[in-house]
Design goal:
heterotrimer; A alpha+beta (about 400); B alpha/beta (about 525); C alpha/beta (about 450); B: alpha/beta; Guanine Nucleotide Dissociation Inhibitor, domain 2; 7-stranded mixed β-sheet; C: 7-stranded mixed β-sheet; 5-stranded parallel β-sheet; 16 helices; 18 strands; about 35% helix
Chain lengths: ~400, ~525, ~450
């Protein structure tokens, strides 16, 4: 019988580190929620030194062949043929109605060789779209190990163990190189909204790769970090998560569960100048409609401290600040009535703010709009004052900056 | 014949019991008359070998309507459904295909055979969820008659039309395809793994005289997908104590509402006067009066045996005679001294706590059907197997087990007819076919019971051994079940009602017919 | 680069009907036919009244064959059952097999005629759209329902009940003579990869009864295509193989022929078949993947082969069917299910001048077939039932249609608003200006030219 959950290629190294024994499932794999008993140090490593995060459970597809760019251009919302070798794009892809199926990164490894990552399996969707094309799609999810090295010292650490030109590696670019003899691809990408890299290697080399990175990072405070820490960082970076912030059009049970890229603050990934891609016409029509007839937007919300403090003071308590990011649906109100809902949020240890990502009708989406966000105070539902703020909540210059 | 009863229900099968419970709950004085020594009909648990309890005929629960479970508070009367969480199909090469309760586990298992099918499986599951949702209202409605011009029927048709139109183009077309295609063709559009398609298509042929390539089987696929447990579609379960426990719980609920149940009381005749029922006559000669009589027996018995031909319009009788049964199922119940070891998963394992499907390929299942087409039982039959004792240890003595094997095809109209010799031959064929996948099965058997369609008919009264009281074929479903114009539980005879699964919505231990018929009786003020 | 108003791909009957209708409306039409010659093969199918009227075919030399008997069934014990155009005469013939069946024959014919009439009404109009919200369409749907209901309660129930049945079950409710049942049931499995015990074959039997008089259960042969080919109007180009349908900005723009020549037209009507058109002639990527998938799922399994027996002189023979029992047909189908050629095939033979053209089932496209041996077997099966046949045989040729030549099975899930794909039954495709016609569209096979007429009207009405 298939063993579930499966273990990632890094498991021989991550398992002994997980003293908390707090594992969780991601795409059928066991990953650590936190390695230590609490996740706080792991989070701070992301923002203060560097963290090592096992992201192998991502689905990864290798698309090769004469029509590889053609296929991907047909599927994703961004322009693919013009991509340079070594360029990486963050993109969504949609169904014919312009509703998001999944999101991920697309890296051009060579002229006719691409790697696409996604949150959920997409082999079938890619295959359906490949009819009649000269292209090969390989599911390399299980055979590719992926580890993220994120934080202000990430570049420094990486430079200790590879000869590849990490210093010259620009934001959302990818280079090939080797780390202690292991062939790797290094992309300047990540899910933390910080300076960081993702390292891709054959699964068989995962353990030595991990060892090499930890050795290189030993003097720089490199800390293995689990999903709880990552979650805090990604909320600060205002990066959405499938099944939490949006539901795939392929998995939605009712229409209202689906979202277009415009409704997810990803309109910038929709290149309508492209002659055709799946969903083009629907998205063009949506853009033409603009903010009319009930358009939704995805915005950042910041609760006001004073308001929070007042609510809790009423029952004689200091504000209860969650230590973990939350992923439940929380009503967002305007003038006392619910107008939308927040789907992700946290108390940012770095920013010292209560932040959330929320879906609201377009008319409430302007930065500065005053809203309310529900908070449960001693079993009673109350509303804390909040405002729409620009995202990302945390956007350090080092994220895009050069060495 | 003093009027002690308002209504008599003929037959103590689950539909008759549900019917009685609802009538009694509404304050009617109800008497249920059951021919056999116990209630349940085909949903009975019997101790055929000492210490070994068999769900003799039907063996799983899923389609029992949630509203019935709630209305009659069946859990309070002893109904406890244990989940059947997996299904494993052994393959001839020693491999297998499994479907598990855990989504990741199932996905990875299917991906082992085909990564594309693993993704398709999720999408397919979602589609079936939507389809089940789309069809669900139909289970609980009185079928409107499209040939009628009455305002009520037209309103019903309009409502039905609106419902289907509200599905949207994609789902409407998918539903239309499900209603008209063969399960093989339908599944070919989704999957490439033969053993996966074979296992799924097998659920499309249960209780039918059709093969997976026969148009009309995709519908039955859906029929079995509409099982609901705790609001979750597609969950199947096993009643603690066997399916007999389901019947006993409903009977207890009915008694709790004041209904009377008599066993060993076979009804031979429905008495009428002036076009209306006046009561029934038992085999013993006893006559019991009632102003309303409800028959839970199949349409052939209900109309062509219990009632005088003179009481029925000729055209209606013709329609009932045309109603087809063509039983194709058999049951083999085994008392085991030890669990068989399946080559694909040797020893005891989680697979024995779920269902095991002998459906290794489409060709296997289709060939099983081919045999039946020409009047023979399948040399290598399709089988749906559960080990009730693995889920409910009380079904067998400690350390021993019961094995429940649903078999297809065993045609009622066997060339030469069913007799003891043929019964044993069928049992032998089943064991031989099983040996291919569990070589030690023979050595585990302590007792064997084989029930042919003739046996099913003889014991339960189900005509031609058809487990659904009539084929679930499109030409006799919905407003056509059991006859055009008579699909609303009433009959041409005044205050004579029908509530068995030979009416809408068909069979599968749903109880829906029993309930809807009761509502019809109450609506008529009967 | 030449320009027309409409390019019609394929000079089959539907293509020619459409071309004629469009040309008469004043459009410049060019018909592209890949064959070098149009050929003489007869059309098989009812020629509906609207086609006759629209193109004034009555006076143009249209000849529809009315063989009498319309079918002669080879009996297992020898001899034949002749099914005549006159109902009473047929009953007389049947009496030799079963008095009971003879008694029921007239009532059976009347009931089948009634049901077929309802189908005919559906076939001469665009397919009903049950999901429409347009007032005019809803009205039409309502009128359709009422017209069925007006025929009586029995007729309404008949139709709803019969359509999903198997031919074997339907006929089994009426008759006891297996030979009679099988001869009729064979019409319910024509070109279909199903047996007579499969659901939906009762429908197909009625489909082939459309437009025929009471008691005639096979579609007729006619010279419709030859007549159309002789009419002026559209420009027909032979030997013109279309390689690609040009699409620009999501709209049809014309075609490219093998060899490179491009022809421009804002409307392209293809009768090459839905799958060929949308999967091979249109560049992949223009179609929404779900629609493309639905097209890929169109079932069109070839199960028929044509055996042409060239004879020494004319053969005077009514159409003969070799299908002595339901079990015979069903076993022939069983072979096909597993990819084999039927060991004992079902045959229907039509005499045409000095040829005997035999439709043989079931010969699955992928099955290996030793043609010479098969041809000999066909002659062997027919010889006992057709006097002098063996002596007259000069040559035997076996033709197996290519997969793409069959445009779509007539299963219940692939008719009316589901043909060729659910929601796209009005000849249009998601590519503006690209339309489909031919037997792969409504109303399906054996209804000569009707899809061409309806498609042309759709173009003109737009």
């Amino acid at each position: 019988m298939i063993e579930v959950p499966r273990t990632t290629p890094f498991h021989p190294r991550t398992a002994p580190l997980c003293v908390s024994r707090a594992w969780r499932r991601w795409a059928g794999y066991a990953v650590a929620s936190s390695y230590e008993l609490l996740h706080d140090r792991e989070y701070h490593a992301i923002r203060n030194s560097a963290a090592l995060i096992d992201v192998s459970p991502l689905y990864k597809y290798l698309v090769t062949g004469r029509d590889a760019a053609h296929l991907l251009d047909r599927v994703v919302t961004r322009a693919v043929p013009a991509m340079k070798v070594g360029q990486v794009l963050y993109t969504t892809w949609c169904d014919a109605a312009g509703k998001v199926i999944d999101d991920g990164t697309l890296a051009r490894l060579a002229e006719d060789r691409f790697r696409l990552t996604s949150a959920e399996p997409n082999l079938r969707w890619l295959s359906l779209n490949a009819a009649g094309l000269d292209v090969t799609i390989q599911d390399v999810s299980d055979t590719t190990a992926a580890v993220a090295l994120q934080g202000p010292l990430a570049r420094t650490i990486l430079q200790q163990c590879t000869e590849a030109d990490v210093a010259g590696l620009k934001y959302f670019r990818l280079i090939h190189g080797s780390i202690r003899g292991i062939d790797v691809a290094i992309s300047r990408t990540g899910y933390t909204g910080d300076l960081g890299f993702e390292i891709w290697a054959a699964a068989v080399h995962a353990v030595p790769l991990w060892d090499a990175l930890r050795a290189a990072g030993a003097d720089y405070g490199l800390t293995p970090a689990g999903i709880l820490a990552l979650d805090l960082a990604r909320v600060e970076a205002a990066l959405m998560l499938q099944d939490v912030d949006y539901i795939s059009a392929h998995r939605a049970l009712i229409e209202s569960q689906k979202s277009s890229p415009f409704e997810l603050n990803l309109g910038w990934t929709v290149d309508l100048a492209k002659e055709r891609f799946v969903g083009h016409d629907a998205l063009a029509a949506e853009r033409a409609r603009g903010e009319a007839d009930g358009a939704w937007r995805f915005v950042g919300i910041e609760a006001e401290w004073d308001s929070l403090e007042r609510l809790f003071a009423e029952v004689g308590l200091p504000p209860r600040l969650p230590t973990q990011a939350w992923r439940t649906s929380v009503p967002v109100t305007a003038g006392g009535t619910q107008v939308g809902y927040a789907t992700s949020g946290c108390w940012s240890p770095l920013l010292k703010k209560s932040i959330a990502l929320a879906h609201v009708p377009a008319e409430y989406a302007v930065a500065g709009t005053r809203l309310g966000i529900e908070v449960t105070v001693e079993h009673h539902r109350r509303q804390a004052a909040a405002r729409v703020v620009p995202t990302p909540f945390f956007d350090p210059p080092r994220k895009r900056g050069s060495a | 014949m003093a009027g002690r009863y308002d209504a008599i229900v003929i037959g103590g099968g689950h539909n008759g019991l549900v019917n009685a419970a609802y009538l009694a709950r509404a304050g009617r004085r109800v008497l249920v008359l059951e021919r056999r020594p116990r209630v349940g009909g085909a949903a009975v648990t019997e101790e055929i070998f000492p210490g070994f309890k068999f769900s003799m005929f039907s063996y799983v629960v899923s389609l029992l309507r949630p509203e019935i479970i709630r209305d009659l508070d069946l859990p309070a009367h002893g109904l406890h459904i244990l989940p059947l969480e997996s299904s494993v199909t052994p393959m001839p090469n020693g491999d297998y295909l499994g479907a598990w309760a855990d989504h990741d586990q199932t996905r990875l298992e299917i991906a082992r055979h085909s990564p594309r099918d693993a993704e398709a499986y999720d999408e397919y599951g979602r589609l079936m969820h939507h389809m089940a949702h789309a069809v669900k209202p139909i289970l609980g409605m009185l079928p409107p008659d499209p040939a009628s011009l009455s305002p009520r029927d037209l309103a019903g048709l309009l409502k039905l039309g609106r419902h289907f139109r509200s599905l949207g183009a994609e789902r409407f077309h998918a539903l239309f395809k499900l209603m008209t295609m063969s399960s093989a063709d339908f599944l070919d559009e989704w999957f490439e793994t033969d053993v996966l398609k074979a296992t799924k298509s097998a659920s499309g042929i249960i209780g039918t005289f059709l093969g997976p390539r026969s148009p009309g089987t995709a519908y039955v696929l859906l029929h079995h997908y509409m099982g609901e447990l705790d609001g979750v579609f597609r969950a199947w379960g096993f009643a603690k104590g066997g399916t007999g426990a389901v019947s006993e719980a409903i009977a207890a609920a009915a008694r709790g509402f004041g209904a009377e149940i008599r066993t060993d009381a076979a009804v031979t005749h429905v008495l009428t006067a002036g076009g209306r029922v006046t009561g029934v006559a038992l085999e013993s000669g006893e006559e019991i009066a009632a102003g309303t009589v409800v028959s839970s027996l199949d349409p052939r018995r209900t109309f062509l045996e219990l009632v005088d031909a003179a009481d029925l319009p000729a055209a209606f009788a013709d329609d009932i005679r045309r109603f087809t049964f063509r039983g194709s199922s058999a049951k083999v119940n085994l008392a085991l001294g030890a669990l068989p070891s399946f080559t694909c998963m040797p020893g005891e394992g989680p697979h024995l706590r779920g269902a095991i499907s002998i459906s290794p390929s489409m060709a296997y299942v289709e060939r099983a059907y081919d045999d039946a087409k020409y009047g023979a039982f399948s040399r290598r039959p399709y089988m749906d197997i559960v080990f009730p004792s693995m889920i409910d240890p009380g079904m067998a003595p400690p350390g021993k087990h019961v094995m429940s094997i649903f078999v297809q095809y065993a045609p009622y109209h066997l060339t030469g007819g069913w007799n003891d010799q043929q019964r044993e031959a069928l049992g032998d064929a089943v064991i031989t076919a099983l040996e291919e996948f569990a070589p030690n099965i023979r050595s585990c058997i302590e007792g064997r019971q084989v029930l042919t369609p003739a046996d099913i008919e003889r014991i339960t009264g189900l005509s031609e051994g058809n487990i659904f009281q009539g084929e679930l074929a499109l030409h006799q479903l919905f407003f056509l079940r059991p006859a055009p114009g008579w699909a609303r539980f009433r009959t041409p005879v005044g205050r004579y009602y029908q509530c068995g699964s030979g009416t809408h919505p068909g069979g599968g231990i749903m109880g829906a017919s029993g309930r809807l018929a009761a509502l019809a009786v109450l609506a008529d003020g009967a | 680069m030449s320009r027309s108003d409409v390019i019609v791909i394929g000079a089959g009957t539907s293509g020619l009907v459409a071309a004629q209708v469009l040309a008469r409306a004043g459009l410049r039409v060019v018909v592209l036919e890949r064959a070098a010659m149009l050929g003489d093969a007869p059309d098989i199918g009812w020629v509906p009244e609207p086609v006759v009227r629209e193109l004034e075919l009555a006076g143009a030399g249209l000849a529809v064959a009315t063989p009498d008997p319309w079918l002669s069934a080879a009996l297992p014990g020898g001899g034949r059952l002749d099914l005549m155009r006159d109902v009473a005469r047929t009953a007389d013939q049947i009496r030799a097999l079963s008095a009971r069946d003879a008694e029921r024959w007239p009532a059976f014919c009347a009931r089948m005629r009634q049901m077929s009439a309802a189908l005919e009404a559906l076939y001469v109009e665009p397919a009903p759209d049950p999901l429409t919200s347009r007032a005019g369409e809803l009205y039409r749907l309502g009128m359709l329902g009422l017209s069925v209901r007006r025929r009586g309660r029995q007729a309404t129930i008949d139709l709803l009940r019969t359509l999903p049945m198997s031919a074997a079950d339907l006929l089994g409710e009426w008759f006891e003579s297996d030979a009679l049942i099988a001869a009729l049931a064979a019409g319910g499995v024509r070109h279909l990869c199903q047996g007579p015990r499969s659901g939906g074959t009762a429908f197909l039997m009625l489909h082939h009864h459309a437009g025929q008089p009471e008691g005639v259960f096979r579609p007729p042969r006619s010279n419709l295509r030859r007549v159309l080919a002789g009419m002026a109007g559209p420009h027909i180009r032979l030997g013109a193989r279309v390689e690609r349908i040009l699409v620009r900005g999501g709209r049809a723009a014309g075609v490219a022929l093998e060899g490179g020549e491009e022809l421009e037209a804002p409307v392209v009507l293809s009768t090459a078949g839905p799958r060929t058109t949308l999967e091979r002639l249109v560049e992949p990527g223009w179609l929404d993947p779900e629609f493309a998938r639905a097209v890929r799922n169109i079932r069109a399994r070839v199960v028929t082969a044509t055996v042409t027996i060239t004879l020494e002189g004319r053969l005077d023979s009514p159409p003969v069917v070799v299908a002595p029992s339901i079990e015979y047909i069903e076993r022939a189908y069983d072979d096909a299910k597993y990819g084999r050629v039927s060991a004992a095939p079902v045959l229907e033979a039509h005499a045409d001048g000095n040829q005997l053209v035999v439709a043989a089932q079931y010969i699955p496209a992928a099955a290996a077939l030793e043609e010479a041996a098969f041809g000999a077997q066909v002659v062997d099966l027919l010889a006992p039932h057709i006097p002098n046949l063996r002596a007259m045989v000069r040559g035997v040729r076996v033709d197996r249609p290519a997969e793409h030549e069959y445009h779509g099975e007539m299963g219940l899930d692939q008719i009316l608003f589901m043909r060729p794909v659910g929601g796209w039954s009005r000849y249009r495709t998601p590519i503006a200006g690209l339309l489909l016609a031919g037997p792969g569209t409504h109303p399906g096979g054996a209804i000569a030219g009707m899809s061409g007429l309806l498609a042309a009207r759709e173009i003109l009405g737009a």
